[in-house]
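TL;DR need structure tokens for one chain.
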Amino acid sequence: MKLRELLQQHQTVTADGAMGTYFSQLTGQSAEGCEKANLTAPDVIRRIHREYRQAGAVLLRTNTFSANTYSLNVSREELKEILTRGYEIARECARGQAVVCADVSAIYDNELTAEEISEEYRFIADTFIACGAKTFLFETLSEIEPVLPAMKYILSVMPDAEIVASFTVLPDGCTRSGVSVHALLESIVQYQNLLTVVGFNCGCGASQLLPYAVPFFSYIQKNTDLYTMLLPNSGYPSIEDRRTVFHSSPLYFAEQTARFLPYGISVLGGCCGTVPESISLLNGMISGNTAAAVKKIPDFPKKTGQAAFASCLTEDRFIIAAELDPPNHADLSKILSAARTLKEAGVNVITVSDSPLGHAKMDSVVCSARIMREVGIEVLPHLCCRDKNINALRSLLLGAHSEGIRAVLAVTGDHIAETDRGVIKPVFNMDSTRFMELISRMNEDVFADSPIAVGGAYDPAKRKTEYSLKRLDRKLSNGAKFVLTQPVFSEEAIDSLKQARAKGVKVLAGIMPLVSWRNANFMQNEVPGMQIPDELVQRFRSDMSREEAAETGIRAAVEIAEKVRPYADGFYFITPFNRAEIISQIIKRL
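>> reply
TL;DR here they are.
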């Protein structure tokens, strides 16, 4: 039996429930690596399939979710045997009365090349095809792109194959890699010709999925020919004694999942924490469903506004931004005073750095919010990816938006010093380009009424121009609307800035005044990536007074700014030691 034929005959069909967690419940063994039980405990796997069939499931998933050589640490020969026996057991239990889906997971391994992963998928697909598989389920996906080569390969070998793509969405409406439900739609629509069914599984329970899945399914039903599927967990799990435990009752699961029936979902079943009783109760509700019409489903929200900073940039105004460094203590009086001085000097926006050089400073968003409230000037906090996973970055953006912040600078963040490693643990869940993509996706749904303008950093150093321009292309494609450059000191840097601006992005040129002989030498020798010409450093003397050194730095900064002005959309002043009066003097002279 083919899946499409089954779906054409019924409004909603019942799928099976969990394999791994039910296997663990029956055997007392860990669910990890339960695919090996196809060989070591086939009777247990056979029992699970049969119990789900008796519960009313007409779609069975093979016990092969993590069956690849990397996840199971097995040879190709062992893997082939696991896959083959997994498919044979499921087919035996289906007895021609249920559709068997060859179950495949995405392979996430940063140490593998794309070709190695593609080769693994080809081996898995060839093994299933040799078994007679016609329906393939790629489940628990964070995004579709990693499995596209596998899908395309299957269809090239078997054009009539049916492919199901199922994504895992967490309670916040995003996948584990930070892809929003709204963003998933774009990729699914783009590759809909590869698919038969699309849906969600795992991650959370039906009640938590409802706000995100309902408009998702509405869009799919209105704009594609794809069928839809929902296989939620029995609820949201807890961790007890290092074990994942689900407390929701089978009846609760069935009632919550049945709430999707009026929306015309093609396949309903279960994932982690569900048992045959869960599916039996759900199947009874599906069989008793007499809804003749599908409920009206709300569409995703549309963008209605534009961030203030983005609007400012589109008005062809020359923007003046000035950076302040947050303190390493809790007193903001000095930085607030500096912000007032800069505002009076004509600065349009205050940017606040985020723990530069990996040294702990006050949170940039908290500091920015105080400046905006108490000084009355727009702010642009830097948000670095170091020290924050995807959840933390999303939380930070939500907090920033609630404070009225509508523009951020997304940066990867400086690495932790080698001497601190092992004591201070760096976290790099994503880099700045992926962070920009995350912000852009949140702008499509969470911030649709008032999006956040996202900018990036650009390094115009001559030795990095080609690399920097390639990075800039990625940033632009991921939603960057403007860039702040590293300090410009040379003609070569100005030329690099011109090349960046030619790509159509708004460029705020970095101007950093040096303020002493010691400062100039430190910046030239000890700050990574800083290229300061010897001629500029030699303008300073070690015996200069504070006032004479400051004047030397101001004159040099004005000279550089005048050279840069024709090739920039604004200035980005890096305020030395938060000495706002120096930036004020530079602005007056310009």
